[in-house]
């Protein structure tokens, strides 16, 4: 298991992050575009600000906690979040991305562990899931390194530009 070579700070997105967020997305299309349908060459600061407004609404309504991943000096490493479903039979779900130039440094794993810690402060949460396209080995590796156990492969839970794909489902239980 690789150690995180830098400290990862999770902070809510703010409008002043929009230009750098856009740059991080566009400079990472090689690794984002296969898996994230929102990533495009046209992703600009206005799209980033719309996303930030959505994250603030989700936080205010208790539906999610979405964060930017930052170095101590404010450099954007990526993003991560956890969604809290309104129905108790549906598990909270964690998602993440890391800009291409910062991948393979343990950043996503550190972010997932921080989100798990946050999730398990809620007494009603006993288990969290991570979904990853079956072919997305990097995301699947993060899930495993964060303590996820593969529970199933199901078709169609994730839809990419190419259409529905097999989805690896990982569960992480409270310890």
TrEMBL record:
One of its GO terms (cellular component) is cytoplasm. SUPFAM superfamilies: Acyl-CoA N-acyltransferases (Nat) (SSF55729). GO terms for molecular function: protein N-terminal-serine acetyltransferase activity; protein-N-terminal-alanine acetyltransferase activity. It holds the Pfam family Acetyltransf_3. Keywords: Transferase. The keyword Cell wall biogenesis/degradation does not apply. The keyword Nucleotide-binding does not apply. InterPro entries: Acyl_CoA_acyltransferase, GNAT_dom, Ribosomal_N-acetyltransferase. This is Ribosomal-protein-serine acetyltransferase.
């Amino acid at each position: 298991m690789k150690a995180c070579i830098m400290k990862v700070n999770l902070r809510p997105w703010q409008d002043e992050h929009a230009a750098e967020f856009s740059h991080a997305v566009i400079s990472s299309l090689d690794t984002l575009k296969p898996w994230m349908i929102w990533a495009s060459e046209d992703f600009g600061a206005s799209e980033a600000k719309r996303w930030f407004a959505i994250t603030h609404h989700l936080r205010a309504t208790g539906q999610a906690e979405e964060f930017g991943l930052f170095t101590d000096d404010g450099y954007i490493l990526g993003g991560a979040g956890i969604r809290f479903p309104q129905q108790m039979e549906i598990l909270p779900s964690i998602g993440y991305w890391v800009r291409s130039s910062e991948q393979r440094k343990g950043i996503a794993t550190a972010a997932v562990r921080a989100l798990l810690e946050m999730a398990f402060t809620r007494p009603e949460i006993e288990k969290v899931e991570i979904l990853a396209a079956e072919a997305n080995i990097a995301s699947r590796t993060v899930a495993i390194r964060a303590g996820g156990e593969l529970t199933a492969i199901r078709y169609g839970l994730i839809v990419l530009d190419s259409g529905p794909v097999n989805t690896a489902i990982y569960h992480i239980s409270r310890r």
